[in-house]
Design goal:
By secondary structure, this protein is mainly beta. The chain has one domain: predicted glycosyltransferase like domains (Thrombin, subunit H, Beta Barrel). The protein is about 5% helix and about 35% strand. It has one helix and six strands; from the N terminus they run E-E-E-E-E-E-H. Strands 1-2-3-6-5-4 form a six-stranded antiparallel barrel. A hairpin with a 2-residue loop joins strand 5 and strand 6.
C-alpha cells in the first residue's frame, strides 16, 4: 500500500449488518467469509453494466485485486453477473456479493494481477 493510502474496513459487509441488506430477492446476506486482501479506499469512476444491459458511469469506493465496493444505477440481485471497465484495462467480469440500497460489493471472476492493480490505483487512493 502506498503512502497516504487508507485501508477500508475489512468486515465482509463493509459496515452493513445482514439485517440491513436486502432480503427481497434483490439481495440477501451471504455467509460471512474473511476477505482475501485488504481494500484500499478509492473514489474512482468506472463504467459498469449488468450482462445484457446498458453501461453506466459509476463510482468505486474501495477495491482490492479480488473485488470492490461499487455504486449501482440499477439494483442487481445477488450473484448477478456484471462487467466493470477501469481506464486502461479490458472489462472485468464480476459477480454481485452483497447489496445495500444502491451500493454493493462485487467479486471479480479473475483477480487483477497485483502489479496491474497497484498501477491501477496509483494516484487514485484517498488521502487519510
Amino acid at each position: 500500500m502506498s503512502a497516504g493510502a487508507r485501508k477500508a474496513p475489512s468486515g465482509a459487509w463493509d459496515g452493513a449488518t445482514p439485517a440491513e441488506c436486502f432480503d427481497s430477492g434483490h439481495a440477501a446476506p451471504l455467509p460471512q467469509k474473511p476477505r482475501r486482501s485488504s481494500r484500499l479506499s478509492l473514489d474512482v469512476e468506472v463504467f459498469s453494466r449488468m450482462v445484457g444491459r446498458q453501461s453506466y458511469k459509476v463510482r468505486i469506493f474501495d477495491a482490492s485485486p479480488y473485488g470492490c465496493k461499487i455504486e449501482f444505477v440499477e439494483r442487481p440481485r445477488l450473484h448477478d453477473q456484471m462487467l466493470v471497465k477501469f481506464d486502461g484495462l479490458e472489462p472485468l467480469a464480476a459477480a454481485v456479493c452483497w447489496v445495500q440500497d444502491f451500493v454493493g460489493g462485487i467479486e471479480f471472476d479473475r483477480p487483477i494481477h497485483p502489479a496491474v492493480f497497484q498501477t491501477l490505483v496509483s494516484g487514485r487512493e484517498m488521502p487519510e
